Amino acid sequence: MRKEEQTEFEKKVLDQFMSGKNLFGKGGAFAPMLKNVIEKALEAEMEGHLNEVQRTKGNKRNGKGKKTIKSGYGTFDIDTPQDRQSSFEPELVKKRQTILADNLSDKIIGLYGLGMSYRDISAHIKEMYDTDISHTVLSQITDRIIPDVKAWQNRPLEPLYCIVWLDAMHYKVKVDGKIEHKALYNILGINKEGYKEILGMYISESEGANFWLQVLTDLNNRGLKDILIACTDNLRGFTDAILSVFPKAQVQLCIVHQIRNSLKYIASKDQKEFMRDLKLVYRATSKEVAEDNLLDLEEKWGDKYPVVIESWQRNWEQLSQYFQYTEPIRKIIYTTNAVEGFHRQVRKVTKTKGAFTNDMALLKLVYLATKNIEKKWTSPLHNWSLTVQQLYIKFGERIPLVLNANSFGASPKGIGTTDRV
């Protein structure tokens, strides 16, 4: 490069750098250099392809084609070598490949996982990398995670989870051109080390005990053999479905769901007084005290609201399981707040979607949102070392309690970390 050309090149680089223009995109100062490097690499690949065997078969060069490449450095055109028999398969820029850099694909999938629409992603990529990407290409890129979604759905599970919450979310999905309401079933578990994990997600047309039975059977087939405590809403038949697959599980119905369902049948003028009396039941210090207060509740309100009182009495055994535990464990299991908290975080990502194009589109986005949420689950539940000891006392050998540094803090020097209790 002559000195005048070098000076002009350096000036162009500096001007584009100071103005924030992409140096590698169309018109970028470095674009010719990147184009030249890629084309030379492709020429070397072609030379290696046209070996003696290929030439014996009559294969040889057959001119060049053109291809527009989109990358994290912008968009640019390259000349691609061709052979007469079309058997050349380049490694650097594969046939029909339009996205050169995997890091750009990773960025697109990351933006999609944050809930951005294809339109917003396309605009962002254009602004940041001076690259135009169609919605079709964006969809093809996000489809790359489908094998990951399927593998994650079918991954093996631990044989025991101490506490499991089961609940469903509801979304609109297009089916044969029509909008249908679908239930997305989510299962949140706590393993014996106290860490949260989404065990699975499943889609059905509606929430029901029959489909929950299929979900529980799938969890069992994937290796889950025992659940200590299962926390659910008050869906009819749910408890029977759980016990049919995990007969030793202790089922705790959500107190909050029961209260909400009760208030639907209480006149607005009575709700404040009724709730004051009801709190004496579910906030009692023991099950015996709670049952005495439930009798008082029936005596006062039974004639006026028999359906509500009958519901509490019919479900009492599953509603009152949490009284067996101390206050910290009660707070964990007496509601489905844990899984509903997960649902709130997922909805922050999915709220911009009016209706999903199909079931997999819904699963893709919720899967990516889940992986982002799970990144924050780096510590066991608060005071888990105390909680797991109570569970061990309650459930015995069903939960193999292991003394280690993670459970009780760093062990003193010289004390083993794998002594089984």
What can you see in these coordinates?
The protein is an alpha/beta fold. The protein has four domains: 92 residues, no CATH class; 54 residues; 217 residues, no CATH class; 37 residues, no CATH class. It is 49% helix and 18% strand. It has 19 helices and nine strands. The strands form three sheets. Strands 5-4-3-6-7 form a five-stranded mixed beta sheet, with helices on both faces. Helix 9 links the parallel strand 6 and strand 7. Helix 12 runs antiparallel to helix 13. The C terminus is likely disordered. Required for the transposition of the insertion element. InterPro entries: Transposase_mutator. It comes from Maribacter polysiphoniae.
Q: Cα-atom Rg, whole angstroms?
A: 31 Å
Number of domains: 4
Strand order of the largest sheet: 5-4-3-6-7
Beta-strand level of the residues, as a percent range?
15-25%
Reported for the largest beta sheet, the result is:
5 strands, mixed
